[in-house]
Amino acid sequence: MSPTDPTPPRSGDDGRGASGGRVLTVSGLRKSFGGNQVLKSIDLAVDQGQVLTLIGPSGSGKTTVLRCLNGLEVPDAGTVAFRGGPTVDFGGQVKRRQLMALRDRSAMVFQHYNLFPHMTVLQNIIEGPVQVQKRPKAEVVHEAEELLARMGLAGKRNDYPAQLSGGQQQRVGIVRALALRPSLLLFDEPTSALDPELVGEVLTAIKELAEEGWTMVMVTHELAFAREVASEVVFMDGGVVVERGHPDVVLRNPRQERTRQFVHRLLNPF
Amino acid sequence: MDVDWGLFWSSLWPITRAGLLGTIPLALISFALGLLIALAVALMRISGNRVLAGAARAYVSVIRGTPLLVQLFVIFYGLPSVGLVIDPWPSAIIAFSLNVGGYAAEVIRASILSVPKGQWEAGHTIGMSRGKTLQRIILPQAARVSVPPLSNTFISLVKDTSLASLILVTELFRKAQEIAAFSQEFMLLYLEAALVYWVFCLVLSSGQSHLERRLGRHVAH
Ligand SMILES: Nc1ncnc2c1ncn2[C@@H]1O[C@H](COP(=O)(O)OP(=O)(O)O)[C@@H](O)[C@H]1O
Ligand SMILES: [Mg+2]
């Protein structure tokens, strides 16, 4: 963390700094939709400054995992614990207040950006910090401008999302998440809605955040990115974790046949 | 047919004045109250609560399934027989508000549902509750979608307020009727009333375009 950094961590506990220590512990996470069991007991652990990438075929439950972590979906069972927050046990009755507390710990970057179209770039970014976290507006605006500049978006603060390219919109989406000062950043295929020539700028931005020490969980099909940036790769299929480990192992020499097939198909599409 | 231009010009201001002091306030007040009712009814319908949703559906069904004139007469001429006497103006405002509430509720419900689900989720991910997301994220976007249909509702309402003449409210059409009865120039006075309504509606339509442009600012240029 550089001394000139504009976003000092909230009580020394935001997503950055490679000081180690467990940020997130998930165990026994289960979720069904109707009779369809989408997650069958998922365990995850993420340390401070780690980048965990989730890979796996479409429909394997990757998005659902992120949504459960962000309180957008209520799991049927399992526990989710963030450092400095409560351990939420979904086996019992979960109160709305607990879900909100969970949500405060992480911030989601969506596949389709989901920016607020009726707000300018700046308004999109400061909405959460000002309206929800009740932080002083001047301070939040200052911080937002620094973040925009770092993301190569200086001068875009008064534009509306519809005036931006997909790559710019997604970088605004990332800044919106950063401005919340979460302990954990969640990315759901952040580049898969982008035109190919715009993927690089967004991946570069995410890589820089990783190098700064932000802790993140990212669903992606960009294996080259995972190989270079991830601390751990988790391969999911059919609602279970099939294999996990260092990217060099999981992506180059997987132990499981299913992993091998999936990686091979992604690298050799035809 | 000989046109009595003298009568035309001398009655133009009294009729317009009755429009400005009767028709327009009646329409504005009823529309504002009607929108509040409509928002509440729309939220009841999408609340997921079966009792609230059922009550809201029944309300909309009754309002849309019965004539406005009958609603007006039930309130003004019907309620006194159960001991509830309401003056002409409040009666008209109650009837028109309830009527707008029934029609606008469907418009508002549809425009809330037209906002993509991802907008709710984006609201939640920045920490907002359902209520706050609705207020800050969903309704502003729904408002833009609902301006054209709600403007039509308002313009219909302006014309429908002429029914209030039947419960003794002094508005545009009742003034025209009075002058017509006095002068026996029915064709002239009723055409003149039509002309004034038409001008009112033209002005309102241009206001609608202005509002649409203002709310549409953020859409790609
Ligand atoms: N809200 C929902 N209702 C019903 N089924 C859902 C819902 N969300 C996801 N699913 C189902 O759960 C499974 C996993 O979905 P998802 O987590 O989106 O997978 P992935 O992100 O790995 O492609 C899919 O079969 C999907 O159809
Ligand atoms: Mg997905």
UniProtKB/TrEMBL annotation, chain B:
Which segments cross the bilayer?
Answer: 20-46, 58-79, 187-207
Classify the source by domain of life.
Answer: Bacteria
What is its subcellular localisation? Cell membrane
The segment(s) forming the ABC transmembrane type-1 domain are 20-208
Q: Record's CDD domains?
A: TM_PBP2
| Membrane topology annotation | Multi-pass membrane protein
Keywords carried by this UniProt record: Amino-acid transport, Cell membrane, Membrane, Transmembrane, Transmembrane helix, Transport
Q: Which family does it belong to?
A: Belongs to the binding-protein-dependent transport system permease family.
Under NCBIfam families, the record lists:
HEQRo_perm_3TM
Task: Name it.
Answer: Amino acid ABC transporter permease
Organism whose genome encodes this protein? Arthrobacter hankyongi
